[in-house]
Amino acid sequence: MYIAIDDTDFPGGMCTTYLMTEVIHRLDLDLIGFPGLVRLNPNIPYKTRGNAALTARLGTGRGEAIDVGRYGSRKVLSWNDCGETGDPEEVAGLVLEIVKEKYGKHPNTNPGIVVSSTRFPSWFYREALRREIMLEEAMELLEKEGASYRYLGNGRGLIGATAAISWEQERTTYELLGYDHAGPRPDNGRMIGLAREIDSIPGTFASMDEENQRATIFPSPRTPVYLGIRGHDHVVLRSLMETLQQHEETRCGRYMLFVTNQGTDDNVVEEPEQLTDLLTCSITGTVASLPVGSDGGHWFCDVNWRGMLVRTAAYEESGSLASAFRMLRPGDMVQITGSYNSGNLNLEKLNVITQAEEYRRAPSICSCGSFYRNVGKSGLKCPSCGDARGYHSYTLRSRARITGIHLPPVSSRRHLSAYPGSRDGGNR
Ligand code: ATP
Fold first, then answer.
1. Alpha helices in 33-132 (DSSP H)
2. Is ligand 1 within 6 A of the CB of residue 175?
3. Which of 64, 157, 221, 344 is 20 to 30 A off residue 42, Cα-Cα?
4. Closest ligand 1 atom, residue 49 Cα
5. Helix (H) or strand (E) holding 209
6. What total number of domains does the chain contain?
């Protein structure tokens, strides 16, 4: 049976991943496969942080088991096959009790719990990555599929929970999360040292943001998550869990390895039929205006896409991406990836395919050795010998090469965003 929960936290505390570890721990059922950490549309205004929903398959384990987590010294086993499943209605009730006890009580927190004997069709997951889904749409699918569900508040969490059970796990990466660390966090220098060590392990990605000197494996201390290590190889992450436990600085009271859709670009629609609000898309066009800067350090230019001018924005936080964007010139051919909202495409990735040639007016010298002077519409005239010319000379201006892919610093990237390193172990 598949269970899913969403919307259990608020900016000041809790984390739905932690609540899922609690559910797995307390239910008297085995874990089948990896628990899933499913990122949904990153442009949804209701999200607390990274718009994550959580899912897990539970039942009576059969076949082979591997170790995917720890509660203190106890291993969490995950089975590759399932026998008996249990009663979804009863399990939904039990999960509701755990959520009620643990969720972050806040006016904008609206937990949703779904339990189903089958996976839902994947179109719902796809839609939940691309647009805003209404609660009624989720309820309709839940009714149609005969799922059991419970909710608190306005029940909005049911949307994410339904989407999590619809995830077909076509493209996957992993994240090892550690919780309940005893003692203080190491100082910044040490955190950076640890992040660099982990970043150098093949099979992991995005552990260190060198551009901003930030150890991304250590998230904000306001949540129960002490550390998070991403990777595309679960064998590497499982063996890392052993190593982390040996050292005081990285030892956690609880670990869990999640399968995720992070770093997969699952949300990106290539060349959509039209640009709609909240969509993340990738389009290829020609730069149509010089980039202009704003007071906040943000840059804007128009890109001609199928004859339509798309206002494109690169924000200051995007670091070297914004620097490359500033150097674009009209005529450059670019592939731009980003989220579209209210007429703006907010850039998350820039691929400069070709750079246009740029010319500048060169000083025109007469055969008598003097410089021609500009005499308005009629062109140029030599002040010494009076020779007249109807045109200016131009020379090719040399431009810094910016062809290739430009990305924001690691800590400014969207969870779902794919980039070299994140997909190596994926299916594309
Ligand atoms: P965290 O990552 O820390 O768990 P969060 O960023 O996932 O938090 P939530 O507190 O879960 O944020 O809030 C997101 C809310 O948005 C949930 O209620 C979820 O059901 C809803 N939601 C997610 N995707 C969509 C969508 N495509 N359309 C409408 N609502 C959505």
1. 88-102, 123-130
2. no
3. 221
4. 6
5. strand 208-209
6. 3
* 15 CB near ligand 1 (under 6 Å): yes
Q: Using CA of residue 223, residue 228, residue 232, residue 238, what is the dihedral sign?
A: negative
Residues 102 and 216 in one domain: yes
Instruction: Report CA-CA distances (Å) from 50 to 4, 39, 122.
Output: 17, 7, 21
Q: Give the integer Cα–Cα distance in Å for 67 and 241.
A: 10
What are residue 136's phi and psi, to 5 degrees? -60, -35
277 alpha carbon – ligand 1 mean position (Å) = 17
CB of residue 46 inside a 6 A radius of ligand 1: yes
Tell me if 9 CB under 6 Å of ligand 1: yes
5, 6, 261, best to mutate for ligand 1 pocket (most atoms within 8 Å of CB): 6
Decide: 49 in ligand 1 pocket, CB within 6 A.
yes
Whether pTM > 0.85 for this model: the answer is yes
Taking the CA of residue 8 as reference, the ligand 1 atom at the shortest distance is 10
Q: Relative to the CA of 278, which ligand 1 atom is closest?
A: 27
**203 and 233 Cβ atoms separated by less than 8 Å:** yes
**Could you give phi then psi for residue 45, rounded to 5 degrees?**
-70, -20
Does residue 108 share a domain with residue 174? yes
Q: Cα of 6 to ligand 1 centre, how many Å?
A: 7
pLDDT tens digits, 312-360: 999 988 999 999 999 999 999 999 999 999 999 999 999 999 999 989 8
**Domain coverage including residue 336:** 268-355+399-412
Give me ligand 1 centre to Cα 39, in Å. Answer: 9
Q: Is 16 in the pocket of ligand 1 (CB under 6 A)?
A: yes
DSSP one-letter code for 169: -
User: Looking at the structure, do residues 64 and 75 belong to the same domain, yes or no?
Assistant: yes
Residue 160 Cβ inside 6 Å of ligand 1? The answer reads yes
Query: Residue 146 is part of a domain; what is its CATH number?
Result: 3.30.70.2200
The pairing of strands 208-209 and 380-381 is: unpaired
- 87-141 tens-digit pLDDT: 999 999 999 999 999 988 888 899 999 999 999 999 999 999 999 999 999 999 9
CB burial of 223-239 (b: ≥16 within 10 Å; e: otherwise) equals: bbbbbbbbbbbbebbbe
**Cβ atoms of 231 and 174 closer than 8 Å:** yes
- Give the distance (Å) from ligand 1 centre to CA of residue 203: 29
**285 and 209 in a common domain:** no
Q: Are residues 256 and 298 in the same domain?
A: no
